[in-house]
Amino acid sequence: MNVLDVFERAAEETWLDLDLRGCHGLAALPESLARLTKLINLRISSCRALTGLPKSLGQLAALDLLYIFDCWALTTLPESLGQLAALTALELVRCEVLMGLPESLGQLVALTTLDVRDCRRLTGLPESLGQLAALTTLDVRECRRLTGLPESLGQLAALTNLDLHYCHALTRLPESLGQLAALTTLDLSYCCALTELPESLGQLGALTTLGLDGCCALTELPESLGQLAALTTLYLQWCNRLTELPESLGQLTVLTFMYLSYCSALTVLPESLGQLAALTTLDLGGCHTLTRLPKSLGLLATLTFLDLSLCHALTSLPESLGQLAALRTLDLRGCIGLTALPFSFAFLSVSCRSDHLSGLFALSFPPQNVAVQGVRAIKAFLLLHHHPLKMMIMIIAARRRCMRRPPAELWVLIRDEYFCTL
């Protein structure tokens, strides 16, 4: 059965779904497409000779899904596309020579999903994009020639998911980005030409996930970052020109996961880090120039995972490390500049694997022969060498419990100090 016969049969039998797959010699669809008045789903995939769609496409009044995949010769879409009043999903995936979308796109009042991923010659989206009042998902990933987004983007009041990762030519985002009040996920991963983020970023009150990993031209983050009150996950891996984080970081009170691995120009973290009351995961692996951690680190009461592997310039850890009561995993592999572990390390409940302590070549306290024996040996050594700290902790405990008859071991340590202050 040839393609024309398929269309005749579809019209006669009032098909609801039509799937044209792998019709490699199909160069065009007939105008008789308009006869498929009941058609709900139209899928066209791997029709690699197809250069365009007929004007009659707009007469498919019931069409809900238009899915076009791997049609390498498709260069344009007809203006009649805007007449598809019932269309909720428009997916144009791997249409590698598609140059643009028609201005009539904005007339698709029911559209909730627009997916143009891997359309590698697409340089921009029409200004009418902002008229898509029902749009919730905009997927533009791997559109590697896309240089910008229209200012009308901010009018997409229902948008919850904006995916722009691997848009290598994207140099800027419109200031109107901050108007996307419903946006929960913004993925800008590997937008290698993006040098800055708009200050309006902080207005995204519903944003829970921000992906910036691989943004290798990004040198700083706006202070408005701290206004993202709903942010739970922040990805910043491989941002190798990022030298610092804004002090406003500490305002992200529900931030749970922060990934900063291989930010090779990052030298310090802000003292406000300790205000991240919900943080459970902090990944700093491969931050080669990080020289120190803030004293406020110990205030991260919910932190369970801390990765400091390959932090070559790190020479010491703050004494407040021992306050991380929830910490279960600490990775210090390859910290070749680390010369000493803090006394408070002995109070951690971490379960470091032996390889998490490998490569500590400069460690002198505890000595190497102790360090290589693992966490238990390190803790035992530290407990033997920090009597002043141990005494202070016991004195505080005794005072809090008003102990006038402490155990004998505690009595020896605290009798003079304790009773002279009663």
**Separate helix tally:** 5
Output the helix-strand order. Answer: HEEEEEEEEEEEEEEHHHH
Distance between the termini: 100 Å
Shape: elongated
Q: Count the domains.
A: 3
- The CATH class designation of the largest domain is Alpha Beta
**DSSP E strands, number:** 14
CATH superfamily descriptor of the largest domain = Ribonuclease Inhibitor
Spans where pLDDT lies below 50 across 5 or more residues: 415-422
CATH fold-level assignment of the largest domain: Leucine-rich repeat, LRR (right-handed beta-alpha superhelix)
The fraction of residues assigned to DSSP E strands is 5-15%
* Mean model confidence by pLDDT: 89
SSE class: little secondary structure
Query: What order do the strands of the largest sheet run in, or round the barrel if closed?
Result: 1-2-3-4-5-6-7-8-9-10-11-12-13-14
What share of residues is helical? 10-25%
CATH architecture of the largest domain: Alpha-Beta Horseshoe
Largest sheet: 14 strands, parallel
